[in-house]
Structure prediction request, 498 residues.
Amino acid sequence: MYQPTIGLEIHAELKTKTKMFCGCLNDPDEKHPNINICPICLGHPGTLPTINQEAVEAVLKLGLALNSIISKISKFDRKSYFYPDLPKGYQISQYEEPLVRGGKLKGIRIRRIHLEEDTGRLLHADDGQFSLVDFNRAGVPLMELVTEPDIKNSEEAVEFAKEFQQICRYLKISDADMEKGEMRVEVNISLREIADQRRLDTQINADNIRENQRNHLRESAFWGTKVEIKNLNSFKVVEESIDYEIKRQSEILEKGEMVKQETRGWDDNKKKTVSQRSKEEAQDYRYFPEPDLPPLNIPAIFNLKKMKQELPELPEAKRRRFNKNYGFDKKSVEILVEDKMLADYFEEATSELKAFNPQTNYQLLLNYFTSDLRGLMKEKNISLESLKIKPEHFAHLVYLAEKGNLSSRLIKDLLAKMAETGEDPETLIKEQKIGLINDDDQLLAVIKRIIQENKKAVEDYKKGKENALQFLIGQAMEKTRGQGKPDKLKTLFKKELS
Ligand code: ADP
Ligand code: MG
Ligand code: ZN
Prediction:
């Protein structure tokens, strides 16, 4: 048995107005190449960078949200390497004095969060004859979060990455859309033998061992050889690559061989990690302090106390509160918390519903919200911003449903009509824009036909099976396209069959 040890490095592009060190627009949707560029982000000699305060503030917000330590003095460094998407020949990053250290997320310790700049994009021709480069992304603020190696399996890794994404969205600092490359994950993974660990513990805890020996044992034997998997661009691939690596490394160790320290990539066609470069080929980035940027005196620039107070409620707190206040199960809470705007909408509807019906338990509201309303929005491709149904009107509809005299079919129709018109359900019913059949004769005609057509059910009912009556009512609902009130149909059926 081997115990996996995993640490993550997550990059996220910040959604600031301008780039990290110049005034160019930071517009991820710009389709035309090389529009948002200037001599600074193109790395022309003699130009000087300036620090984007909005980007620094974004990272600090995340640090505050994760209860991290915010550095008093933070510095930028140059990380030198050559690649055609990096026009300066170095990337401005942070090495020794990152903005943020420590903190925790989902029980995983955060090592650091720092700021750097993104590179341009390369587009390679299919025939390999040439490559194009687009510098619109060069110099876009990029935040990097590094965890301690506290993660034990792919599930925990994905959970961490998803929570990171959600928090970025709650804080409105990054959309962190993995499909768009706004969030990129690197996995560091090693395996160690569990049995060895026990033996090691006995050695370490032995009485006759000197302290420095003890420390050495701890350091050297605790970790296995680390493999880094780069550029993972979906949660699924994070999961698959970790599971694959655990299997691959186990098999190597099983044979008594050693895992090679290297960087690997994910081949999504073969569903395998593949070697990219080994430790011997590892680059020396020649980090040194960026001479063109002053150290940042954080407390002199930011009111951290105020920033902390102004943080929005974070997903975890929201989950707890939703569970406590409404008693919803984990899965439902997750649907609500997934999107902050959706959660806000829902909460507004709850308080409106409470006004209509102080006795409500919100269960029906939850059901209509998670299935019908979200279903409608998905089907018709309606975003929350463009949704015409006001939370109050939605709550009103649920209230009518709670009173029990609207069929589920009718509720669906009403909801669709509300989305079209933005009107209150009661108004729609009154104005007959949605038909409710109130005419007894009309309903009786339907009922008589159903009694004719369902002899067996009628017999069953007469023998005392209540289910059979429900079945007949259901048939009537279908015939009237939900426009008969269930309670009225029930009375009429009973009368007709008595
Ligand atoms: P490097 O200098 O190679 O980038 P670091 O020590 O800075 O390595 O760690 C980078 C990432 O690797 C961090 O997320 C860290 O938690 C993780 N990590 C460190 N050691 C191990 C290990 N033995 N197994 C798995 N992950 C590790
Ligand atoms: Mg690394
Ligand atoms: Zn620029």
